[in-house]
Write a structure and sequence with these properties.
The chain is an alpha/beta fold. It is built from 12 helices and 7 strands. The protein has a single domain, classed as Rossmann fold (3-Layer(aba) Sandwich). Bound molecules: hexanoyl-coenzyme A (HXC) and NADP nicotinamide-adenine-dinucleotide phosphate (NAP).
Length: 297
């Protein structure tokens, strides 16, 4: 097998045992992209999976496709995460079907690239509301339920690395993801006494139609040289993110709480370190530099 046809280790499912038997997991935005990939993996690990987003038709197609791929049926529920009543309905319908909710992945998001001064206030609202309000709506509704019913659940929030660095041209998303990160760290401490764990994943670029069409049109991707910004020289593979999510939601991570795990091939640190962009210097140039620097001592 050559490297092209060989499945690399990180592209493979990490857990072989069905670690999520009898566990019910809700994934917001689970009909597409990374949410779909997590849904697929969790189904194979024995979970009851509920995928919730605005477009029921998209969700139902995904349920059918995942059934073909895994032999297990997920449950599709229409829900706009900005609407608290709809969020509560998803929780109630999940409990009615599966008896309980054990875990939540706050994955739904809205985003697009634009200079901030071009945005209307509604454009800012829409992104902030999906990302931040959507996350705190689900977190609050499910947290209240878990505390009242003494369930010890686990939450996972999908943020991005610019949640702490900020980023030009995606300011609404940056503000909202920063809020989600603060929510993660705050509630991880406050609700630990109820046995609730809350963590986050900060992915770098993982190709999805949703992100690529809205953030990396040709004019942007040609300027950014995306892969060159990533020290490991490649994009993320969906399975490696699903592996990390499964670990963080599993009992193997029972002592991991309030953590944000970056999975970006070193991208954000590359942008941050003062001398990180010196790879272009040749050996001769380094010889000259050494001579000059030593000459100073
Ligand atoms: C400027 C824009 C705009 C754009 C929409 N608007 N697109 N303004 N530039 N490109 C404005 C509209 O004019 C309107 O304001 C307001 O935003 C709402 O737009 P609608 O089209 O009515 O909203 P809606 O149909 O509800 O769609 C929501 C959406 C859309 C967020 C705009 O993109 C969406 O459905 N996204 C969901 C999926 C998604 O975004 N996935 C990517 C996640 S990737 P006015 O004032 O005119 O009414 C991600 C990765 C981050 O987060 C990190 C990568 C490395
Ligand atoms: P995606 O496929 O576009 O997923 C976003 C999902 O959110 C869609 O399924 C969408 O479904 C749902 N959604 C949007 N608005 C909603 C609302 N109001 N209520 C309920 N659901 C809503 O994009 P993705 O790349 O997989 O992104 C998934 C997550 O990873 C996001 O949190 C994103 O910020 C994060 N992330 C992605 C990358 C990347 O490189 N892909 C990098 C860093 C972080 P509907 O349209 O049906 O509502």
């Amino acid at each position: 097998m050559n490297e092209k046809t060989m499945m690399l280790q990180y592209q493979k499912p990490m857990f072989e045992n069905k670690i999520f038997i009898d566990k019910t997991i809700i994934i917001t935005g689970g009909g597409t992209g990374l949410g779909r990939s997590m849904a697929k993996y969790f189904l194979t690990l024995g979970a009851n999976v509920v995928i919730a987003s605005r477009k029921l038709e998209v969700l139902e197609n995904t349920v059918n496709e995942l059934y073909q791929e895994t032999g297990v049926k997920a449950l599709a529920l229409a829900c706009d995460v900005r609407n608290y009543k709809e969020v509560e309905d998803v929780i109630h319908q999940t409990i009615a079907k599966y008896g309980a909710v054990d875990a939540l992945v706050n994955n739904a998001a809205g985003n697009f690239i634009s200079p901030t001064e071009r945005l209307s206030h509604k454009a800012i609202d829409i992104v902030v509301d999906i990302v931040l309000k959507g996350t705190y709506n689900f977190t609050l509704a499910l947290g209240k339920h878990w505390i009242d019913s003494k369930n010890k659940g686990c939450m996972l929030n999908i943020v991005t690395t610019y949640a702490w660095t900020g980023s030009s041209f995606v300011v609404p998303s940056s503000m909202a993801k920063a809020g989600v990160l603060a929510l993660t760290r705050s509630l991880a401490v406050e609700w630990a006494k109820y046995g609730i764990r809350i963590n986050a994943i900060a992915p770098g670029p993982f190709p999805t139609e949703g992100a690529w069409t809205r953030l990396f049109p040709e004019e942007v991707s040609s300027k950014l040289n995306l892969k060159e910004r990533i020290p490991l020289g490649r994009f993320g593979h969906h399975q490696e993110l699903a592996n990390l999510a499964a670990y963080l939601l599993s009992d193997f991570a029972a002592y991991v709480n309030g953590e944000v795990v970056t999975i970006d091939g070193g991208e954000w640190l590359n942008g941050a370190g003062e001398f990180n962009h010196l790879n272009e210097l040749s050996s001769e140039e380094w010889d000259n530099i050494e001579k000059k620097v030593r000459g100073k001592s």
